[in-house]
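Progress report, Aim 2. The chain analyzed during this reporting quarter is listed below.
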Amino acid sequence: MTASRKKAPEAVLFGESLRQLRSERGWSQERLAETAGISLNYVGNLERGEQGPSLHVIVRLARAFAIDVPTLLGAFPSETVRKIRLG
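Predicted structure tokens for the chain:
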């Protein structure tokens, strides 16, 4: 990613939440990637907020953690969504 390209705030928020969920379980990025069926590089990009996940990936991550999608997206309550400045 170039220095001039700004990270999307919703991607950064999702990445922080994903890293926290993974860390709480004591999982490495490698384990999450393998369990979710996505690449290790993609997990890193998600956690750094360099990419936002597709719905397909959100479902894969929720399955990997054995949680539902709303729990995975718990960092996005309505008040937070209203405050995110989309560019």
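Residues 70 and 87 are 24 Å apart (CA to CA). The domain at 9-81 is CATH 1.10.260.40 (434 Repressor (Amino-terminal Domain)). These observations will guide the mutagenesis work planned for the next reporting period.
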